[in-house]
Design a protein that fits this description.
The chain has 12 helices and 16 strands. By secondary structure, the protein is an alpha+beta fold. It folds into 3 domains: 84 residues, DNA Primase, Chain A (Alpha-Beta Complex), CATH 3.90.580.10; 115 residues, DNA primase, catalytic core, N-terminal domain (DNA primase DNAg catalytic core, N-terminal domain, Alpha-Beta Complex); 113 residues, Dna Topoisomerase Vi A Subunit, Chain: A, domain 2 (3-Layer(aba) Sandwich). Helix 3 packs across helix 4 and helix 10 crosses helix 11. The protein binds zinc ion.
Length: 360
């Protein structure tokens, strides 16, 4: 199947038609439909034809076409993708989906990254390292840590397999074409750490075996300076209580949250404090990113847990930005000197709990 055909079938227009969403009106690149989540009758859900996104102004549900199809059909993004490309598209021809920009949206990244990870192994030395950080066997499987392959022909072979199975690699940070125009991906000796939001893998963080520039042990899987490569966005990872209803995010209850640098430490904290919101942040974040972070969750107090590398090198800007935006008295600074070590304050404040049954 060619790229245009995949684009047609995964477009927001095709998804709207497949789901029989009721169109109220349209202007330019925007179609207004009745929201299938809050059942509003006023065309509160806005579909953007140029970037395949949706957002409901009433219930604040938002995302992209594949994820919309997945949520309403109760499927994973990957299942939704496979189903959409296997069915004849229903496109009204006043809109022809075009490549708006090269970078894939979150749902598309989720599909490619999951498929990449599925084709990789976790070597024994990395398994032992993760166990030494305090992860259980089940955590390691659930989170999906994998060893990054370094062998070039092995990487090319994996890319070939992905493409053969219909996974377009263009626009996926980390992937690029080499001097022979063969698809491959960046690699460093280390572990892939999935960066997850609402069960969607939005990026891959690399936990390096050796320090990079003596500054950090964690970098993005990114390929910005390579041919047909893409730059990774500096993302946050928001891990919510299991079974947490995304629609409740917009209520007014402020909540204490745990913020951790780096992602691997955030995964560790959330594997223990399953009922809490744990936010993983990269070791460097800008002021505007801090503001965006604060807007994503209704934060009361922040328990900020920093790993040794962040604390000793780059944390100052992150802390200052958080102070500025949330207020100094709202932030409790904590340290985790050894990988995965849980600070005493966290142990006293939060309960190791079973999954909450009744969130409302
Ligand atoms: Zn809605």
């Amino acid at each position: 199947m060619n790229q245009q055909e995949i684009l047609n079938r995964t477009s927001i227009i095709n998804v709207k038609n497949k789901l029989n969403l009721n169109e109220v009106c349209s202007f330019g690149d925007t179609i207004y439909v009745n929201c299938p989540f809050c059942y509003s009758e006023n065309g509160d859900m806005k579909l953007n034809v140029s970037n395949n996104s949706y957002v409901c102004k009433k219930c604040e549900a938002k995302g992209y076409s594949i994820g919309l199809y997945a949520r309403l059909k109760l499927k994973s993004n990957k299942e939704a993708f496979k189903e959409l490309i296997s069915l004849e598209p229903e496109i009204n021809f006043e809109y022809t989906p075009t490549t708006y920009n090269n970078r894939k949206n979150e749902d598309e990244l989720d599909i490619v990254y999951r498929e990449l990870l599925r084709n990789l192994k976790l070597e024994d030395r990395h398994y032992k390292k993760l166990i030494s950080y305090g992860f259980t066997n089940a955590d390691i499987k659930n989170i999906g840590f994998k060893t990054i392959p370094l062998n070039e022909s092995k990487k090319i072979e994996i890319c070939k397999k992905l493409i053969k199975n219909g996974y377009e690699l263009q626009g996926t940070p980390g992937f690029y074409q080499n001097a022979n125009f063969k698809w491959t991906f960046k690699s460093h000796s280390g572990i892939f750490v999935p960066v997850i939001n609402n069960n969607t893998i939005i990026g891959l963080r690399i936990h390096l075996d050796k320090k990079y520039n003596a500054n950090t042990t964690d970098i993005w899987f990114s390929s910005k300076n390579e041919y047909n490569g893409s730059k990774a966005k500096n993302e946050f990872m928001i891990l919510r209580p299991e079974g947490f209803n995304i629609q409740l995010v917009s209520n007014n209850n402020k909540q204490d949250v745990i913020i951790a640098t780096e992602m691997i430490l955030a995964h560790k904290l959330h594997s223990i404090y399953k009922n809490e919101i744990v936010i993983g942040i990269p070791n460097i974040i800008s002021k505007s990113e801090t503001i965006r972070l604060a807007s994503l969750v209704n934060i009361d107090n922040v328990y900020l847990v920093m790993d040794f590398h962040t604390m000793s090198n780059s944390a100052v800007s992150a802390i200052e930005n958080l102070y500025d935006y949330l207020g100094k008295d709202k932030i409790i600074n904590l340290l985790s000197f050894n990988q995965g070590e849980i600070p005493e304050v966290i142990k006293d404040r939060f309960n190791i709990g079973e999954i909450k049954q009744n969130i409302a």
